[in-house]
């Protein structure tokens, strides 16, 4: 039995105990009004499943007809978030996430994020919120060698990042709860694809305001729910990433919230943050739903011989298609960055 098989078998009793109690307990009551503006003009944008891990459940995203905010409704509660995050970034999913974070596309994005500060900013201390295993900080240090990078996250990855020397200090917990002890410590706070995971984005922006010194900068990068790719690919669009992404903020909404929190928006960018994987991730999501599942602890038992045979053969057969789509994603990236097909945006704001 492989190490992974042992970990799957060890985790199965806990998952089965969780599932035996029903999925309903993982959700808050459905909201009748928009959590961003309070409007009751809601319509369902889409319903989908967990395409990444294939854990059981169906998830809905609603859109506000007033401010265009998109949000998970009903939203996962604390128990639901723990269940669906388990074994994604850590545990069984750690090796996969490490490979993705070390890919050439990821490193290119990390470098672009590190260079996003307006000149002549020379930060002394930088806090990366939602740092995961700290791969961004390790790359950013090559751009800012005189900067001390710290990381904050709710998972154990931040402690792994400190042990590997990618960050100087690891803060494990909720940013909204830790920000007071970090008040005025930082020249830069970055939130790269973090805000969409949070329960209360405005409170996260307030925490960033607290942690920054006056004149310091906040960098925010999030998926763009107004991207034409989101319409084109529907439920299969990779950045929807259900059930982990709870909020999708239109650019003008985020800029307005930053201004209200005491920031000045100094730059916005819909070009550079584009991640050229829309075709590939959509196809991978479809393939994930069609193929038999791998052996995972949220299945009641190990898949049978037929499933264990069909899955690797199908993956091998689908690999050339995914490779071709990935090449097409890269080829089309300059076009997408110049149009509304760009799938993410960045905001740089200064704490006044």
TrEMBL record:
<dbReference type="GO" id="GO:0032259">
    <property type="term" value="P:methylation"/>
</dbReference>
<feature type="transmembrane region" description="Helical">
    <location>
        <begin position="315"/>
        <end position="336"/>
    </location>
</feature>
<keyword id="KW-0808">Transferase</keyword>
<keyword id="KW-0489">Methyltransferase</keyword>
<keyword id="KW-0472">Membrane</keyword>
<dbReference type="GO" id="GO:0008168">
    <property type="term" value="F:methyltransferase activity"/>
</dbReference>
<dbReference type="InterPro" id="IPR029063">
    <property type="entry name" value="SAM-dependent_MTases_sf"/>
</dbReference>
<keyword id="KW-0812">Transmembrane</keyword>
<protein>
    <submittedName>
        <fullName>SAM-dependent methyltransferase</fullName>
    </submittedName>
</protein>
<keyword id="KW-1133">Transmembrane helix</keyword>
<dbReference type="Pfam" id="PF13489">
    <property type="entry name" value="Methyltransf_23"/>
</dbReference>
